Amino acid sequence: MQSRAPRLVLAFCSLLLAFGAFAHAKAFRGAASVIRTAQLPSIYGSDFKALWLSDSTTLLTVAALFAAVALRPSIASRTLVFMIALIPAATAIFIYIFVGAFYAGHLLLGTAVAAVLASFRL
Question: Is the full-model pTM beyond 0.90?
Answer without folding.
Answer: yes
